[in-house]
Design brief:
With about 240 residues, the protein is of the alpha/beta class. It is built from 9 helices and 7 strands, in the order αβαβαββαβαββαααα. It has a 7-stranded mixed beta sheet with strand order 3-2-1-4-5-7-6, with helices on both faces. It starts with 7 loop residues before the first helix and ends with a helix. It binds S-adenosylmethionine (SAM).
Length: about 240
């Protein structure tokens, strides 16, 4: 992977960046995504934010190597704090982290979201935390993708400000939060593979709980897994 040739995962993220936008890529590491987006003529300017010194230096070097210092500003800092107050940013990308951390970055940086039109979020796990945050903060899911690369499955969530309940209007809300209201309608082969794998894993845990003497009636973890399996199997079998 490099700034000209992204991984499939980051290519999907890049495909949702609106033309001519000013983007901020948070947790940018090598700054491949902002460099690619500028070189492809998608974004017109970018901020690459990084909290860790090593990746920050890699990002800086990448931007210098591509002679993009006039359009990409590389900044060291936590989450959205790298965006200055009043600075115009149209689109934020946060990729390659857990859903809990992405949610925390959005929550901590709420004040920096006022000018932002689109969020493109790619959690490695626990996308449910992001969907819950979007619903509670009036962001509407406008698209979702699920892809497989190197035997790993990734979800990409795209949101814009709006009626956050709209995306859930023809699906069960709880199931939509877990599986993705758009992904469960698309029901791709990768989606089915992911949730079959999850169900198998949950059933193994239930077996272990049963062997330790726990049941639906006396153990909350057992009940939670059992309910999730039911929700998922209903969608997979429909
Ligand atoms: N976004 C790139 C991608 O998807 O390939 C890099 C993903 S890398 C696994 C996660 C990066 O996020 C690391 O470089 C880490 O230092 C950075 N990071 C983690 N927490 C952060 C935060 N709160 N603010 C900014 N960067 C953060």
């Amino acid at each position: 992977m490099n700034e000209m040739n992204l991984s499939k995962r980051l290519e999907v993220v890049a495909s949702f960046i609106p033309e001519k936008s000013v983007m901020a890529d948070i947790g940018s590491d090598h700054a491949y995504l902002p460099c690619f987006s500028i070189l492809q003529g998608k974004a017109k300017a970018a901020i690459a934010g990084e909290i860790t010194a090593g990746p920050y230096e890699s990002a800086r070097n990448q931007v210098i190597k591509n002679e993009l210092t006039n359009v990409i500003s590389v900044r060291l800092g936590d989450g959205l704090s790298v965006i200055e107050e009043g600075e115009q940013v149209d689109c934020i990308t946060i990729a390659g982290m857990g859903g809990g951390l992405i949610k925390k970055i959005l929550e901590d940086g709420m004040l920096k979201l006022t000018t932002v039109d689109r969020l493109i979020l790619q959690p490695n796990i626990h996308a449910i935390h992001i969907r819950e945050w979007l619903v509670n903060n009036n962001w509407e899911l406008i698209d979702e993708e699920i892809i497989e690369e190197d035997n790993k499955i990734y979800e990409v969530l795209v949101a814009e400000k709006g009626d956050s309940n709209k995306s859930y209007k023809d699906v069960s809300f709880q199931t939509g939060l877990l599986l993705g209201p758009i992904l469960m309608k698309k029901k791709s082969d990768v989606f089915k593979k992911k949730w079959l794998q999850e169900c198998t894993h949950w059933k193994e845990i239930i077996n272990q709980l049963e062997n330790s003497g726990y049941t639906y009636n006396n153990n909350e973890k057992y009940r939670e897994l059992f309910e999730k399996i039911k929700l998922v199997e209903e969608v997979l079998e429909s």
